[in-house]
Structures are given as structure tokens and as C-alpha cells.
Design goal:
Length: 1073
């Protein structure tokens, strides 16, 4: 098999006659087991098309495919067709193969996250704005936030009806507890007090009781709650034996408060339910109108399709292998179960101790349930050997985790060491003294000690910077640790989310936006003046605040004057210009990018600003145009703890320290791991007037259901924190530095506390303790001094590029018009919309425009297999365009399509010529040197002697225009021919564009079919683009006869052939997103 498996690995590889569940501990070589099992199935003559392998990430799928190719190069062609993908890619395949049954546009695409989130925000704001809210939800902005949080939480947890048909918790008759309570109070007032204190309390209650009673019966929940609070305050003053008479009163007060709160919440929950249902309906409709799906849609639609026996029968796999099964959610398990129902033998591999994706809807109980099901008629195997870590690290984990494992998922099974011992403790407890400090101050001090320790290790030659990783539970406080690394001069890269909107350079732009929106916002104004926009010092800001600007330096006075001019200009611009143009003007009028580039980690900061500008253009294209609209979106995104990551540079592959979340480190390993910030609380308090949980539904604050939900969430988060810690500790190969704060002013339940509690039971030889008392760089406490922004004098780093991706469409655009490429792909400037406006709504009887006609024809050609289907497919395709065909339109469309049905291409599709194997909508992503090229080919015909590539074109052109228009697609056809030659390992005989409307073919010149010549052209062109990006606009000149441009308002060039610009639209639909 190419390697010597352990007995348990061999059992997992060779057991192919029954269901099998494999529990794979950290570093146990499960990826190798998956590959070897796949190869073993092939050796047992199981056809590749009968094997399905599902991985957790696309990267893992590609790695598995590469390993299989390396092991069996003779199967390269067959492996290209193998079902090795993520669960979402499999779902996408099922939907693409059954668009009619799914009632979805067959050319759907997966929406970008920013795109779907921006769309959702618009819909939520419209839905909230269109309804009169209860008084408690009168703040529109906060209500939008609440609906945003609830909807995303409900989607993640698999909610389908969004409260429809549910009775709000606590839907009770008003005031049913008032009478019993009043009766008990009146009976109590008849009791004789035995002390002067009791007598005073009784007299006070006696005096206030009529007013309290009146409020209790008043039909206002807030007044009733106030009355209960006043009553409770009096009752609490009753002590001694007399307090025994108040027990029932106390219980009735608690029940009354619960009932009133529930009744109050019922109205709010009912309103929110209507809003959420409206959001869900409109969001789904908007996505369908745009032809996009998100990952939740993929799961739901695939699940619905697989419940149809005729669909499920088409996926009769003999073996189904699923990796990382501990991070599966319930609907994904249902999809797997439906596939297994067709007779597949199930093989799942995972580790419940590493189930850490609850925030994505993953449920560790799914793996535990599946193991139990398999145990009844299959087999369970445990891979105990750890090939990653030193034995000392493994022994530490084996002793420590049984002491903290309290839930079913953490039923700890010890790992076995495979590597040679280091002969010394490999776990270091870095104790930072924090007596008298609060947690924030302690973190700052700890961050400094970590930075100094990292530098000490590198300077001593014990490791390189690239060997070190800092793993965080969350990135909330990562800026403290980044700042310490900067002060110590340590190069680093932040690879995880929750960094982008918190980065100082992004905050600078947001502060400028806020100042433009509110001239009285002094906090934002001072932040802008202090930033690289104007570089006014802290002392200068002091004199400004003191009203003595004349005391600023000469340079600062010039900067202040420039700030005034810039503000006057930009505050007018923001009133009528789109946000990305305001950002562009802001950067052009100031020296922000130049100043920022020269700062430590300047290239990263500039890349982040460029990413912000790109994102702003994307939001502009999604109709979030103005600065206030985009600020609203940024506000919501910045609240997402698993949100946007920084722009990535090649620094992640350089000699730099890596900062990432433990979630982001899953599946990775590092020689030296630092585990910082372990003294913070393990759980976060659930907040908000309304919370959601699948078991409780929507619950309102102050009710028992609300408190029970909070406790259930706290327990779930607590248990997952155990698993998260296990993942963190097991990432280390050589050394683990566990960092914590000693003598913290406020002790709390934390990972550091777990460790301290466990230390008495841990053998001393497993760890060593180091006090974090290394001296500050300048002999003082730099964490107390802060960092003054200044411009150092060293040379900036040159940007580097590695694995840059180019689509076929983009390369074709560059060849035809470099200026168009620059505007669309570099600046991300939205293009003129050529889509119909649909002003008349559905059922518009006006004549079809070129885009609608082309789309309908294209959809029919993609789907049709029998001429008898033509009528139904035309109706379906028209429905996808939102039009209803009249007799004339139907006749015209049939006239266009009928010649295709008599063509050689359709004959092959029908199987009339059996020597051809046909692939439709063939996607590819192929490397060329340091670049990647991706695309999507409509049809590939494969024979034993070679390939023919066919791409359908829906342009409305005349027969005499075919040669000219076809020539504009030469680059596309050439790249498709190159890609398919690489994919299938066969020569390309023809690469052709079939223009449906004139029913004519343009065939690429045979000299351009040579894949080696094409590959050289790709490298040269990509390098030329990269070089041009550094030079800017002038490196991308317009071509006078550009036939591709939908950027004419930005460039001034116009298409010069064809009735319209459908050729541009064709490129859009062919591009692989």
C-alpha cells in the first residue's frame, strides 16, 4: 500500500463489507487512511463512479484527489470524474442535474458571502420599516440588529418555518394570578407582628396596599411589574417567624412576574414571527430572482430532491466515505442517510473531541448517534496512534483532559505516541504576574511577555518565526497581542477572521465617514487628525482641545489646514456621490496610503484598505450606495465574531509568526504553539430581549423559557470550550506554551483555572513553569506608554504574488481591452446593467429583449434531451426570466432552437453517435506556474482519438457577423482547448463557438490548439497583468475598437459590432464564480 499501517489503520482500510465508524484522534493519520481505503476499494474492483468521498473543505478534497493521482497515475482520467468533494459541492451537483425538479434556474451560482449578506440586510431593513413595531422595539436600528441576529441563528440551527404555527411561550389569560395574590396579601395583613421592626413594615405595606392592588389590576404590564416590585420590596423587609407567612406570597409574585413578562413577550414574539417569515420569503425570492443560492439553500434543496425516489436512484453509490463527521449538522446527516438508503456502505471518520463548529450548526450528537447506529450492524474503530506530537505532549494531554472531560463528546480515549521522545518537558506554563490588575491590563502585560519570549526563542536559534503560531479562542482581543509583536519588531500575519473591521486602518476610514456624517462627532474628528490622514501628535491634539492651535508645530498647522479643506470638499461630496467614490477621493486628497505603507506591516495595511475599497464597490453593485448605507452594513459585519478576515498577502508563506483562531487551526500543525488569553471567561452571556433555540423557539427576556435557553446555551458553550482546548493543545508538534495570568484581581472560570485545578494531579515531569518577567524593550513598561504613530525611515516591502487566480473571462477581457479589464477586475467598478427592468412585472407581453431571448434559448439547449420536451422547457425557461410567452414569441424561439435539434451536436447528446462521451458544464481550476486559471465549458465531446470543445453563444447576430464576433472569443476557445487537453490528457481536435441564433459555428484556428504554446501565452499574460497592477491605470490602455465594454460611462469606448452587447453578457454567464 505504500506505507506500513498500524493494526487499527489496517482495520479501517480493509473493512469494506459493512458500515464502519472510525474515531480518529489528533494526528492519527486519518487522511492517509481515507486515501488508502479508497485505493483498496479500487483494488477490490469497485468502480470509481460507485465511490463517493465527502470532505470538510475544498482544500481537503483537492489534497485527497492529488494523493490518489500520485498513488495511481494510471487512473488520472477516471479520478477527474470521481465524486470527491465537500457536502455542498455534492449538493450543488444534485441540484444542477435536476433543476426542473428543484424549480431553480439551471445556471444558478453560489452567491458571495458579502453579496448575500448585503441582500439580507436590505430585506430586513425593508421588512422592519414596513411594519409598526411594539413599543419595546421602537428603535428601528436595534430592531434590525435583533432580526438580523435571530434570522441568522435560526438559519444556522436548521429552522424551516420561522415560527409559523407556534404558540408564543406564556400565551396566558391576563391577570389570572392577581386574585390569588391579593387574597394572600390581605390574609397576611391580618397577622399580628411581634416586633417593632415587623410592625413598621406591616404598617408601610398596609398603607401602600390599595395603590399596589389598583396597579396590579390595571391592564398595563409595565405598571403591573412595577407594582410587583414594590410589593416584593415590602415583603423582603419581613423577617423572623413572621416571614413564614410570606412564602406563598413570594411564590405568587415570582409566578405573576413570569406570567406578565410572558404575556408582554407574546406580542413581541408574534410581531417578530411575522417579520421573520416575511424576511425568509422575500430573501428566498430575491435570491431566486438573482439566480443565486447560499449554502443553506444547497442543503435544503438537495435534501428535498433526494426524498424523490427517482432522483435518489441516480446516486446509487456502493461506498460513501465522509470525513470530519463530528462537524456534521442534522440535515447533512439526513442527506447522507438518504444516499445510504440506496444500498451504500457508510464509512465515517471523525473525533467528537474535535467538534468545534457549533456556530455553523454542527451537532456533535450527530456523530455519537451515527456511531451508535453503525455499532448495531457494522463496526467501530479507534485510531489511537498520534504521529504529530512529541510523546511528552501526548502524555500531558492524556493526563490533563480526563480531569476536565465531563460531557459525552469528551469521553476521553488516550492517544499513543509514535515519535521519539524529546527527553524534556514540552509544555511550558508562562505565568504572567497580574496582582492588582484587571483583565484588560493583564492581557496587555501578558502580550508583551509572549512577544519577548518569541523573540528570545528565535534569537537563541531554537526556532524560526514561521515555526510559531499564536492560537486564540476568539479574536476579540487580538489587537493587544498584535501591538506587542509590533513593539518587539516581530513579523506576523493575522490569518483569521474578526480582524478586518477592527484593524486600525479600517477604523480610520470609518472614523472619517462618521465625522463626515456628524460634524459634532469630536471623537471621530480627533481620531482622523491623529491617524495617517494628517499625523497630528497627541500633544497637538491636546492644544487643539485647549483652543490653542497656534502651539501646533508648523507641519501640524499645515496638516490641520489641509484637513479643513478636505473636510469641506468631502462633506459636500458625501451628499451626492457613492461611498466607493468618496473613499477614492479621500485617499487621493490625502497621503494616507503613502504614510501607511511606510508603517510597520504597511503592505498588509494598504492591502486592507484596497480590500475595503473593493468591498465598497461590491456593495455599490448590490444597491448599498451611500456612505450611511454602507456604514450600516459594516456595523453589522463587525458584530460577527466569525466575520471578515484581513486581506491576505504572501506573508502567510514567509518567515512570520501566525495569529489565528483555534477554529482556523483545525487540521493544521505547528512546531511551537502559544496559547494566549486563557484567563478570560469561557462562556459569553446571551443578550437581547428575544433569543432563539430549536428546543425553546423564540423566548422573551424575564421568562423561565428565556432563562432555561440561556442555561442550555451556556452548558453547550462550556462543553464546546473543552473540545476547543483539546484542538488547541494537539496542534503542537514540539513545544506548547500555555500562557495565563496569576493573582488576577477577579478570578473566573477559565482554561487557566482548569489548568491550576489539574496541576496537583499532573506528574511534575510533564511541564515546566516560567514567570513572565522579561524586561521591556526600553527598560520600562511599554504597555503602559502606548504607541505614538510616527513614520519610520526604512524602505517599504515590495508586494509578492503567489497562486493568483484568473478566470477565462478575465483573460479574454484583458486581451480585447486592457482598460476594460482594469476597470472591472482591478478597481471592481460595477458595469452598466443590461438586464431588463421588468417595469410591468410578471406577465409582461412586450417583445423579448436580447438578454431574455438569449437566456431562454441557452437554458433550453442546456436541458433538452428529447425534441418532445421543447414546449415544456420553453415555459420553464420563460418562467425563470419572469415572462409569459405569447404565440409570436414562442414561434420565434422555436425557430431559433429547431435547427440545433437537427444539428450534429444534438445528435451526439441523444446518443446517435455512440463513439462520443459527453461532458456538460465542465468546470476546471488548473495551475500555470504561480497562477491559477478557472472556467466553465458548455460541452466536451471525448473520443478515443481526441476531444471537441463546444461553447454555446446566445448573441443575436447575423450570419455574416459570425467570423468577426467569433474572433472575439478566440482567447476563450483557446483556453478551453488548453484546459480540456490538460484535464483529459488527449489532443483537442476542434474548439468551436456554436452561435445558436444564426445556427452557425466559428472554429478556432488549428494553430491555437497547441496546449504548450497556450500555456506560455498564459504565463506571459498573467505576468504582464501583475506588472501592470504595480504601475496603475496607464499600464492598461483602452483599445479603440473594444467590443466588450459595459464600462462605457467610465471609459468612453463603445461596442462596435452586433445588435447589442450580448457577447459581454455571455462572458458573465460563462465565468466560474
Amino acid at each position: 500500500m505504500g506505507f506500513a499501517p498500524t493494526p487499527s489503520q489496517q482495520e479501517a482500510i480493509a473493512t469494506v463489507d459493512r458500515h464502519l465508524a472510525v474515531t480518529a484522534g489528533a494526528g492519527s493519520g486519518k487522511t492517509r487512511v481515507l486515501v488508502e481505503r479508497y485505493l483498496n476499494l479500487i483494488d477490490h474492483e469497485v468502480p470509481i463512479e460507485k465511490i463517493a468521498a465527502i470532505t470538510f473543505t475544498k482544500k481537503a478534497a483537492q489534497e485527497m484527489r492529488d494523493r490518489l493521482r500520485l498513488a495511481r497515475p494510471d487512473l488520472t482520467e477516471e479520478l477527474e470524474r470521481a465524486q470527491i468533494s465537500t457536502i455542498h459541492s455534492l449538493c450543488q451537483r444534485i441540484i444542477q442535474e435536476h433543476p426542473l425538479q428543484a424549480a431553480i434556474d439551471p445556471r444558478f451560482r453560489i452567491g458571495e458571502e458579502w453579496e448575500t449578506q448585503a441582500l439580507l440586510l436590505q430585506i430586513i431593513e425593508a421588512e422592519v420599516e414596513g411594519r409598526e413595531p411594539p413599543e419595546e422595539l421602537s428603535d428601528r436600528a436595534r430592531t434590525v440588529d435583533l432580526v438580523w441576529d435571530l434570522y441568522r441563528e435560526m438559519l444556522t440551527k436548521g429552522e424551516k418555518d420561522f415560527g409559523q404555527g407556534r404558540t408564543p411561550a406564556g400565551d396566558m389569560e391576563p391577570g389570572f394570578l392577581v386574585a390569588p395574590l391579593c387574597h394572600e396579601v390581605e390574609q397576611f395583613l391580618l397577622v399580628q407582628p411581634s416586633t417593632a421592626v415587623q410592625k413598621a413594615a406591616m404598617e408601610g405595606l398596609q398603607e401602600e396596599w390599595p395603590s399596589i392592588q389598583e396597579l396590579l389590576y390595571f391592564p398595563d404590564p409595565d405598571l403591573q411589574l412595577e407594582a410587583l416590585q414594590v410589593l416584593e420590596d415590602f415583603i423582603k423587609r419581613i423577617r423572623g417567624k413572621l416571614a413564614e407567612h410570606t412564602v406563598l406570597i413570594r411564590e405568587l409574585i415570582a409566578e405573576g412576574r413570569e406570567t406578565i413578562q410572558a404575556q408582554k413577550g407574546a406580542e413581541i414574539i408574534a410581531w417578530l414571527t411575522e417579520v421573520l417569515q416575511g424576511v425568509h420569503h422575500n430573501y428566498n425570492q430575491a435570491k431566486r430572482d438573482l439566480g443565486i443560492l447560499d449554502y443553506n439553500d444547497l442543503e435544503q434543496l438537495a435534501h428535498e430532491l433526494l426524498q424523490k425516489p427517482e432522483v435518489r436512484a441516480q446516486y446509487g453509490f456502493a461506498h460513501l466515505m465522509v470525513d470530519e463527521f463530528q462537524d456534521t449538522n442534522p440535515i447533512q446527516k439526513q442527506i447522507v442517510d438518504l444516499l445510504v438508503a440506496e444500498g451504500a456502505l457508510l464509512f465515517v471518520v471523525g473525533d467528537p473531541k474535535q467538534s468545534i463548529y457549533r456556530f455553523r450548526g454542527a451537532d456533535v450528537g450527530v456523530f455519537i448517534q451515527t456511531k451508535a447506529e453503525i455499532d448495531q450492524e457494522g463496526k467501530n474503530v479507534f485510531l489511537a496512534e498520534n504521529f504529530r506530537s512529541r510523546p511528552e505532549l501526548i502524555e500531558f494531554a492524556n493526563h490533563f483532559f480526563p480531569q476536565v472531560a465531563v460531557d459525552e463528546a469528551m469521553a476521553f480515549e488516550a492517544s499513543k505516541a509514535s515519535r521519539e521522545p524529546a527527553g524534556r518537558p514540552c509544555v511550558t506554563l508562562l505565568r504572567t504576574p497580574a496582582e492588582g490588575l484587571n483583565l484588560e491590563e493583564g492581557r496587555t502585560k501578558e502580550a508583551e511577555q509572549i512577544a519577548l519570549k518569541v523573540r528570545q526563542l528565535v534569537e537563541a536559534g531554537q526556532c524560526n518565526y514561521e515555526d510559531v503560531a499564536l492560537l486564540f479562542r476568539t479574536m476579540t482581543n487580538v489587537r493587544i497581542y498584535e501591538r506587542a509583536l509590533q513593539v518587539a519588531g516581530i513579523p506576523y500575519v493575522n490569518l483569521s477572521g474578526r480582524g478586518f473591521y477592527a484593524q486600525q486602518e479600517i477604523r480610520d476610514v470609518i472614523h472619517y465617514f462618521s465625522w463626515l456624517g456628524d460634524p459634532e462627532d469630536q471623537v471621530s474628528r480627533l481620531a482622523v487628525l491623529r491617524s495617517p490622514f494628517y499625523l497630528i501628535s497627541d500633544q497637538g491634539l491636546y492644544w487643539l482641545q485647549a483652543g490653542q492651535p497656534e502651539k501646533l508645530t508648523v507641519t501640524e498647522r499645515k496638516s490641520l489646514a489641509q484637513a479643513g479643506e478636505d473636510y469641506a470638499y468631502l462633506s459636500q461630496l458625501v451628499k451626492y456621490e457613492a461611498a466607493p467614490r468618496v473613499i477614492t477621493a479621500m485617499l487621493e486628497r490625502t497621503n494616507y496610503l503613502q504614510n501607511t505603507w511606510q508603517l510597520p506591516f504597511g503592505p498588509q495595511k494598504v492591502a486592507n484598505i484596497e480590500k475595503l475599497l473593493e468591498q465598497s464597490w461590491q456593495l455599490y453593485a448590490q444597491d448599498l450606495v451611500s456612505v450611511p448605507e454602507q456604514l450600516r452594513y459594516i456595523h453589522l459585519m463587525s458584530r460577527d465574531s466569525k466575520g471578515e478576515g484581513e486581506a491576505l498577502l504572501d506573508a502567510e508563506h514567509a518567515d512570520v509568526v501566525r495569529l489565528l483562531t483555534i477554529h482556523g487551526s483545525k487540521g493544521l500543525e505547528f512546531p511551537v504553539v502559544f496559547l494566549p488569553d486563557t484567563s478570560g471567561s469561557l462562556t459569553r452571556a446571551q443578550r437581547g430581549p428575544v433569543l432563539y433555540h430549536p428546543e425553546f423557539g423564540l423566548t422573551y427576556q424575564g421568562t423561565q423559557a428565556y432563562e432555561a435557553l440561556k442555561e442550555a446555551e451556556r452548558q453547550a458553550e462550556y462543553h464546546e470550550s473543552q473540545r476547543l482546548l483539546y484542538v488547541a493543545v494537539t496542534r503542537a508538534e514540539e513545544e506548547l506554551y500555555w500562557c495565563g495570568l496569576d493573582d488576577l484581581a477577579r478570578a473566573r472560570e477559565s482554561w487557566w483555572k482548569w489548568l491550576q485545578d489539574a496541576l496537583p494531579e499532573l506528574p511534575d515531569h510533564l511541564y515546566r513553569e516560567v514567570v513572565g518577567d522579561l524586561p521591556s524593550l526600553d527598560g520600562s513598561s511599554s504597555y503602559e506608554q502606548g504607541i505614538q504613530l510616527a513614520i519610520p525611515s526604512y524602505e517599504p516591502l515590495l508586494p509578492q504574488y503567489n497562486q493568483v487566480a484568473f478566470s477565462v473571462t478575465s483573460l479574454m477581457s484583458y486581451e480585447l481591452c486592457p482598460r476594460h479589464y482594469y476597470l472591472r477586475y482591478i478597481l471592481q467598478v460595477p458595469e452598466l446593467s443590461l438586464a431588463p427592468t421588468q417595469a410591468n412585472g410578471f406577465g409582461n407581453k412586450s417583445s423579448l429583449n436580447a438578454l431574455q431571448r438569449g437566456n431562454i434559448v441557452h437554458r433550453v439547449v442546456e436541458q433538452i434531451r428529447d425534441p418532445e420536451e421543447l414546449g415544456d422547457l420553453l415555459d420553464y425557461a420563460a418562467l425563470m426570466e419572469g415572462v409569459e410567452l405569447d404565440g409570436t414569441q414562442r414561434f420565434q424561439l422555436e425557430k431559433i432552437i429547431l435547427p440545433y435539434l437537427q444539428s450534429e451536436f444534438f445528435g451526439r447528446v441523444q446518443g446517435a453517435q455512440g463513439q462520443w462521451e459527453i461532458y456538460q458544464e465542465r468546470e476546471f481550476v488548473l495551475p500555470v506556474g504561480n497562477f491559477l486559471v478557472n472556467g466553465l465549458v458548455d460541452q466536451v465531446f471525448v473520443s478515443s482519438t481526441g476531444l471537441e470543445v463546444v461553447d454555446f453563444k446566445s448573441n443575436w447576430i447575423r450570419l455574416e457577423q459570425v467570423e468577426a464576433v467569433g474572433l472575439s472569443y478566440a482567447v476563450q476557445l483557446r483556453l478551453y482547448a488548453w484546459a480540456m487537453a490538460r484535464e483529459f490528457g488527449l489532443p483537442v481536435l476542434k474548439s468551436q463557438a456554436y452561435f445558436l441564433i444564426p445556427n452557425a459555428v466559428y472554429q478556432l484556428d488549428a494553430q491555437l490548439l497547441d496546449p504548450n504554446l497556450t500555456e506560455r501565452w498564459i504565463k506571459q499574460t498573467c505576468q504582464e497583468i501583475i506588472a501592470g497592477v504595480e504601475l496603475g491605470l496607464e499600464a492598461f490602455p483602452p483599445k479603440g475598437d473594444c467590443a466588450t465594454c459595459a464600462q462605457r460611462t467610465n471609459c468612453g469606448n463603445y461596442p462596435s459590432f452586433g445588435e447589442n452587447t450580448d457577447d459581454h453578457l455571455a462572458w458573465v454567464e460563462e465565468e466560474l464564480v
